[in-house]
Write a structure and sequence with these properties.
By secondary structure, the chain is an alpha+beta fold. It has a single domain, classed as N-utilization substance G protein NusG, insert domain (mini-chromosome maintenance (MCM) complex, domain 2, Sandwich), CATH 2.60.320.10. 24% of the residues lie in helices and 37% in strands. It is built from two helices and seven strands. The strands form two sheets. The chain has a four-stranded antiparallel sheet.
Length: 116
């Protein structure tokens, strides 16, 4: 290889490394997840729980139809064992820590789980 080729390859590697570092630092706050309760009477949204999806945990919430359970494991989270008629929130499955964040919405219980 010629000297110019080595310099070009080195520059490309440095730019790629800087991009990865920027992506990691920029998305570090995106591991915070909010559980929002919507009050149909007043129309107000209230954050009832905030958690870091990088810390394994299990949360149980009291909701209008009974209980709402959230499992956090290996940088992912999901709704599990939810008392609601249609179970659409449970069918969403695991939401990963990086990539496209799909909010979990339980309309019968007025709950939304989303990345902050």
């Amino acid at each position: 290889m010629k000297k110019k080729e080595i310099i070009i390859i080195a520059i490309i590697l440095v730019v790629a490394l800087c991009g990865l570092i920027y992506f990691y630092l920029d998305h570090k706050d995106e591991t915070l997840v909010e559980v929002i309760s919507h009050d149909e009477v007043t129309g107000e949204d209230t954050v009832i729980l905030q958690f870091d999806m990088m810390e394994d945990a299990y949360y149980e919430l009291e909701v209008p139809n009974g209980h709402f359970h959230i499992e956090v494991k290996d940088g992912r989270y999901r709704a599990i064992d939810v008392d609601c008629p249609n179970q659409n929130c449970v069918n969403v499955g695991w939401v990963p820590s990086l990539g496209v964040y799909t909010p979990i919405i339980c309309i019968p219980n007025g709950i939304t789980i989303q990345v902050k």
